[in-house]
Amino acid sequence: xxxxxxxxxxxxxxxxxxxxxxxxxxxxxxxxxxxxxxxxxxxxxxxxxxxxxxxxxxxxxxxxxxxxxxxxxxxxxxxxxxxxxxxxxxxxxxxxxxxxxxxxxxxxxxxxxxxxxxxxxxxxxxxxxxxxxxxxxxxxxxxxxxxxxxxxxxxxxxxxxxxxxxxxxxxxxxxxxxxxxxxxxxxxxxxxxxxxxxxxxxxxxxxxxxxxxxxxxxxxxxxxxxxxxxxxxxxxxxxxxxxxxxx
Length: 247
Ligand code: CA
Prior knowledge:
Layout: E1 10-14, H1 18-30, E2 34-38, H2 41-51, E3 55-59, H3 67-76, E4 83-87, H4 90-98, E5 105-108, H5 113-128, E6 136-139, E7 142-145, E8 151-153, E9 156-158, H6 162-173, E10 179-180, H7 181-189, H8 197-211, E11 217-220, E12 224-227
Parallel strand pairs: 1-2, 1-3, 3-4, 4-5
Antiparallel strand pairs: 6-7, 7-8, 8-9, 10-12, 11-12
Helix pairs in contact: 1-5, 2-3, 6-7, 6-8, 7-8
């Protein structure tokens, strides 16, 4: 199926079950996305490099190369195209979340096509939706550029997924403010999610793992998470006032 350019971008659907491809393609097109299809992992890698889709909807159980390996190879090659995983079993969810694969979100089969479209839109909003204004957030050795999405620790670039970046930036924009997991799911993931608090915990752990000692995220026990206020640094909002609704 050829890619059809649309204003919302082309989504590469990687799925070997024709009935699922059909229902996803129908719903994605209705939502204004262009759709390209790969029916196995090898084709997914080739197409991702040739058509440069806005995002992948990536089934895990695939012929030739499975979805997890497709994601691993893309990330290893420096390709951070947003990925929405489709999983069939709980143990696949564990593999997606447990490894630092750089998945942006996942849905579990059987899914409603509307949920898939909503999740995808959420992923793309997180990639594109950083407002202008403040462009550089700093915390000690950590620098987060909201315009370029570049994250550095002591000048060394750290690669974050779109979701990890959005979570970190969201917390750092309001230093000292404690967010519950539910607030973070709503603010960062941005949809009525079936994923639970565990999703937030896993992404926080991944950000911490990547940033190491430079991570500003602290756990507020039995409440949620907050970014520490920058030590001796200017207020990142530039207005001179600290957030008022924090801890
Ligand atoms: Ca499959």
